[in-house]
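Progress report, Aim 2. The chain analyzed during this reporting quarter is listed below.
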Amino acid sequence: MTEDGISLKEQRERVTGAYLQRSISVGMVILFMYCGWITIRLMRTRPRAIASICCLLQATVGITYSLIAVSTLFPGGATCWASVWAAAVAIAVNDGCVSTVILQKAYVVHQRPRWMLVFGPLIGISIPIIAYTTVTSPAVLGPTCACGFLYPPYYLWMRFGFYFPMDVVFSIAFIRVVYRQYRDVKAKLWKRLMQDGIQVILCMATSHLICLLLVTFDVVGSFSVMVIMIDW
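Predicted structure tokens for the chain:
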């Protein structure tokens, strides 16, 4: 049986996918609010730190996007296109913030080599380009992930081209720091890394690289957007 050219099975899948996506969005609202609270405390102690500013920006954008995504479930709420538009901006800002924090830390721990600064303009250029490409892509209702967008074939590879070189360079840079500190302190390595913040930054760089590969090579299919959210 079909209704308006859509089978009942597909309709059920869409409804299930929509509620699954909204449930995740509700969880994201709670998570981002908690992160926002932590960020506010961080801003009070280090208001001018790049990491503090980026965390505040990520939390703010995350809360805004999650609320928009949740509102699509209710009558009169945001449209699917509005949700995609918000996701496009949020994902681009998140990528930029993560890369900025990693770049700043790598720049400091390696005694400020000037060659690392070439990644700064690359990060700045990538944010509007990726956001624009996503916003101009048509929004669709998928059978599993509810509201999504049909990105052009080059989108994933463009994002890969922007961030893969940086992720590889930064991951290697922090692994070198870990190895250098291992030779110096050995038994106290993990404690030293936690004090320097290198442990968290290395995890960020590795996570961003893994998620980038999963999304680019479409390992998880229609749930690729969820992988990006996990990285966020």
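The CA atoms of residues 17 and 145 lie 5 Å apart. The radius of gyration is 20 Å. These observations will guide the mutagenesis work planned for the next reporting period.
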